[in-house]
Amino acid sequence: xxxxxxxxxxxxxxxxxxxxxxxxxxxxxxxxxxxxxxxxxxxxxxxxxxxxxxxxxxxxxxxxxxxxxxxxxxxxxxxxxxxxxxxxxxxxxxxxxxxxxxxxxxxxxxxxxxxxxxxxxxxxxxxxxxxxxxxxxxxxxxxxxxxxxxxxxxxxxxxxxxxxxxxxxxxxxxxxxxxxxxxxxxxxxxxxxxxxxxxxxxxxxxxxxxxxxxxxxxxxxxxxxxxxxxxxxxxxxx
Length: 238
Fold this sequence. Notes:
The protein has about 240 residues and is of the alpha/beta class. It has helices spanning about 45-55, 75-80, 100-105, 120-125, 125-130, 140-155, 170-185, 200-205, 220-225, 230-235, and strands at about 5-15, 20-30, 35-40, 60-65, 70, 85, 160-165, 190-195, 205-210, 215-220.
């Protein structure tokens, strides 16, 4: 199953230039746990995930810890090497790479049960297998989202950060994504999810954090939050 690690953020403040976006933020994801970050648009959810990798022009103060390794001082590729994978919003694919090359370049062999290979991605998502030889950027929006998820899976990382994985994909693909998340957790891997689709988030996550104006204002088990319609209305406008 491999080494299981806790992921934690403690006292994180994040800035774009002089403008502060996240305020004294703390959270944790236990080994084999699925955690969702919920909130309305513009509350800092995507910035939080970018902050783990130090990308997008963010400036970080505070502690980001994966296992016993501090990540806040590492570059993005060094963070990835610690065993953290990222499904970014907006896909960030390369025009010069085919669908297959995106997966082959990202693939890291693990020799563990449940290993994701490029071929396993194609078996799971035949939508993109049929287009494996064309540029990844020529796929439809939903297919690019699938490829971006597949690219993260083949890194065989212990922690998967996912930013809006439901964007542009069908209900059938969402079912497969949820099943994949369950399988990853059964192998001791962890997921930190940002998602606007509340039903999918609550289906995947064990716990939720609510982000309002760059600060966490609520945390609870997902089943408890599912039943709390007042908090859903207050924090999410549902």
